[in-house]
Amino acid sequence: MAFAYTPGLRVASVTRVRKERRLPLKGTVVVAVGDEVEAGTIVARTELPGNVQVLNLANRMGLPPADIPEFLLKNPGDPVEQNEPIARSKGFLGLFKSTVRSPIEGQLDSYSEITGQVLLREPPVPVEIDAYVKGKVVEVIEDEGVVVETRGTFVQGIFGIGGETRGELKVVVDSSDQELTADLLDPSCSGKVLVGGCFVSHSTLTRAIGLGVRAVVVGGFDDKDLKDFLGYDLGVAITGHETKGITLILTEGFGRMNMAQATFDLLRSRQGLLASVNGATQIRAGVIRPELVIPVGGDVQSAQRAEREAGALDSGSQVRLIRAPYFGRLAKVTKLPPELQELDSESKARVLEVQFDDGERAIVPRANVELIEH
């Protein structure tokens, strides 16, 4: 049977998900291959070097740099407390002593007899990474991290902001075309990952933050509100580092856009399960999509077929059109002609034939669809 691979978003009911969890620099991996882990299980840890502060002792003490070592009260590598004396001159006849105190807690790193400066380093910053999803450790990257594998629902979005978070999935609207409004939110939403319908406003998102909502997954958001919400123009940089206290994932795009019915139904069927969410997005080279992972348990091997077919189109595949004039419509693939065909633009491309729910058929470029997996 003919098949093709298409770019676009994945919406998989059950698939094998593998997540690499890597430290920013070498450290210690605290789990082993075969270990079962929860989403919050720490899998590796390290320490980032503390910030360095420079103190010019020669200027402070009014002495030549070469004379300073005689008056140091601490040696390189010694710990220091905040406001603790680190150098003191003898003064004249025991009077007019000059004392320099450490402005920070940490350690004395080094002293330069050329510049007269001492380097003070703040305490190291501990860094830990968790498993992100409930699953099994299938690979250990020595001194750096692990790969965690799980069987679960996997949904990618078009755009997102905010980093990794997790919470119980809660659907707060009745249909995919209903707006997520502030009156639908209450204290029971605290700590949850909320699923809305076609839209969420800036004010509702602010209300959600106040209630302690972990994440919001909806069809669309106003692009003008995005600047007001963030306080700056986003530009083309990668997202995911925002510190607004919530993660937002858009499944369709900017504006008031109904969430795809298949996606909405799938998320509603997973209500009450723990969802791991990451809003990181990069649209340029090296595309990164925001995502939602919901482990559903069971044997990972039973999801291999779904994984093998991830991104594969064949006759009968469900797709969503992502270009005009059929933007947003769902359809079923009926044919996959292998030869290039000439488009209205007079360029040639590989195409496919789709049939919409109302029976209408259309020929569209393969690049104009995204696969919806179930």
Task: Name the descriptors.
5-stranded antiparallel β-sheet; SH3 type barrels; 3 domains; 374 residues; OB fold (Dihydrolipoamide Acetyltransferase, E2P); mainly beta; elongated; 5 helices; disordered N terminus; 11-stranded mixed β-sheet
What does the model show?
This protein has 374 residues and is mainly beta. It folds into 3 domains: 204 residues; 70 residues, Beta Barrel (OB fold (Dihydrolipoamide Acetyltransferase, E2P)); 58 residues, Roll (SH3 type barrels). 10% of the residues lie in helices and 40% in strands. The chain has 5 helices and 29 strands. The strands form 7 sheets. Strands 2, 4, 13, 14, 15, 16, 17, 18, 19, 20 and 21 form an 11-stranded mixed β-sheet that branches. A 5-stranded antiparallel β-sheet has the order 28-27-24-23-29, with no helix packed on it. The longest helix is centred in the middle third of the chain and has 10 residues. The N terminus is likely disordered.
